[in-house]
Amino acid sequence: MSEKNDQVLLRVENLCQYFKTTKAVDDISFTIKKGEVFGLVGESGCGKTTTGRAIIKLYNITSGSIYFKDRRISAGTLSYRKAITDARKEMRTADPARKAELERFIAEQKELIRSARYDQKNADKLYEDVMSQEVDEKYKPLLAAASGEELWALQKKYAYEKRIAANQRFTTQIQMIFQDPIASLDPRMTVYETIAEGLVIRGEKDKAVIDEKVYRVLEMVGLVRDHASRYPHEFSGGQRQRIGVARAVVMEPELIIADEPVSALDVSIQAQVINLMNDLRHKLGLTILFIAHDLSVVKYFSDRIGVMYYGKLVEMASSDELFLHPIHPYTQSLLSAIPRPDPLFEKQRRRIKYDPLSAHDYSVDKPSFREVLPDHFVYCNDEEFAAYQRAYGGQAE
């Protein structure tokens, strides 16, 4: 990997997203480095899309924290509130020394709740302040040293960048490409209006600048300027998805969440869209969270892969390592389902069935996410961890 990949752009810590009693995402943690493509795979309903929507703040997360560029942009409070409840129950039978300790613990949890609520509410406002301060620091010495026409031109640029900074949000640097290229586009808006909408919301008023950016990204995704005046129903599925890509890219984001962007397309069109995203990734230096079902596509496109099952992250490793040494039984089951264009292989291919009740005994020995091999993490308990290390330890490079 290149040197830029050492910088962590997104960090998800103990993320939980519950909908009443349904644990859509349950205590998952991972990082995405700058310039990396992180693939998230798993069957339908495992929590992949919910994870992406929680990161982009379409949901208020239940518990855990999400950090973007080392700033906490989302925080939940359920784990802190549960810890307070458990501590109060223990206080009923605790001795005086233990009670004092629990009281301090409860005070700490309350402070964490206040901090989480503050960050959740004010993350965008704080970012706006930082961006405005950067603009001030950039232009104030220039303005002080300029005069005449140069001063007037600098004042105009300063006012423009100040207005853009005042409308900056963390989510403008995180854009999403949705799964359904039909439902994700407003049928009453032209392609031009669809792509330009984010720029207008961000505070861009100069039509010449908007025109330049819209036409540039249209050509970048393989469309032409004439397409700008048309409506979504006039395009094929692959062209609509290119419009969705253009809408995300025009905002010049640092992170793109691609939520199964090719699953609704024909196989030949899938390859075109994936190649387009791969080209844009290298050309624009994008970081991508790639959510998909097709493991072959994920292997081709991703640097690292996380495997989800029923809201849990059960395995995470580099793309090559995961396909070479799948450790968790569910990952083995997923990989065994990948068909190959080889009749002889298909005749002999053995599907591995995953039954969590028979595969694991977590009644006493509880599981956690552990590093079995270097940078290869698996959700397992103590007994499984020891067995995996015995079985795979000698295969680590």
How would you describe this protein?
- With 397 residues, the chain is an alpha/beta fold.
- The protein is 48% helix and 20% strand.
- The chain has helices at residues 48-55, 78-91, 96-145, 148-166, 191-201, 207-220, 237-249, 267-284, 295-301, 319-324, 329-336, 343-348, 356-359, 382-392; strands at residues 8-19, 22-33, 37-41, 63-68, 71-75, 174-177, 255-259, 287-292, 304-309, 312-318, 368-373, 376-380.
- The strands form 2 sheets. Strands 6-7-8-3-9-10-12-11 form an 8-stranded mixed β-sheet, sandwiched between helices. A 4-stranded antiparallel β-sheet has the order 2-1-4-5.
- The longest helix is centred in the N-terminal third of the chain and has 50 residues, at 96-145.
- The two termini are 17 Å apart.
- The mean pLDDT is 90.
Summary keywords:
alpha/beta; 397 residues
Structural category is: alpha/beta
Mean pLDDT: 90
Query: Poorly predicted ranges (pLDDT <50, ≥5 residues)?
Result: none
CA(first)-CA(last) distance: 17 Å
In short:
The chain is an alpha/beta fold.
SSE layout and pairing:
Elements: E1 8-19, E2 22-33, E3 37-41, H1 48-55, E4 63-68, E5 71-75, H2 78-91, H3 96-145, H4 148-166, E6 174-177, H5 191-201, H6 207-220, H7 237-249, E7 255-259, H8 267-284, E8 287-292, H9 295-301, E9 304-309, E10 312-318, H10 319-324, H11 329-336, H12 343-348, H13 356-359, E11 368-373, E12 376-380, H14 382-392
Parallel strand pairs: 3-8, 3-9, 6-7, 7-8
Antiparallel strand pairs: 1-2, 1-4, 4-5, 9-10, 10-12, 11-12
